[in-house]
Input
Amino acid sequence: MSGLLLRLAGPLQSWGERSAFTPVRDTASFPTRSALIGMFAAAEGISRNEADLDRYQDLRLTVRVDRPGVRLIDYHTAGGGFPKDRPAATTRRHYLSDAVFVVAVTAADQTIHRLADALTRPHWAPYLGRRSCVPDEPFLLRRHVDDPEEELRTRVPLSRTGPRTEDSEGLQSGTIPVEFLLEQPPPADQSEQPVPVDVIDVNDVPVSFAQHGRSHTSRRLHRTQLPVSRSLAGPPQTLIQRLIDYAHLEESA
Output
């Protein structure tokens, strides 16, 4: 088993939780499994109606929430220019503004190599939930790491909106509490107090991406805060360079 690391950042993201097209197009507060698998399938050149989703069944996804973003609602119309008896359709589309997530994808080595190759040279360009939401660079942080979840906790630079004081973080120990969403319980640490965990069920496991037959099943997530070294935050003005340096470490290895 090994993994890769994706950094999902951009002006806007939208991770819809409902498959039906409704007047209100919502967004989850984190990247959904359905959206991430859709991104992988698109990178591999697999169309909606051809997608064999069993090939992604064994992926384990861990999300680190660097910045949760701010919710934004856009009033959107479609169909302008129709006759008067056919008014334009309207929707309210929800987005996350200025959010940043880092995703650890763990799977068999062969699967990780396949996905990394596809994400490096995607058939269809990746986007953050909607085609208008283009990801920032660097997008694919690492193509291959032995333990991507440990990398999230110990090595991947942390994106913050600005410097934070010791009091606002509530810590004097050199660590920062950061939100994680895990598909399995968080690792136990006998030297510290047990971490509070919020167990949630989400309906975002894709069964079919077919245009007129989308369907999903549920999975269980463990939402918690884990300590991350304060050194990973660093000065905000150096973030991009630190991310580039981290991504290039793999090339020089």
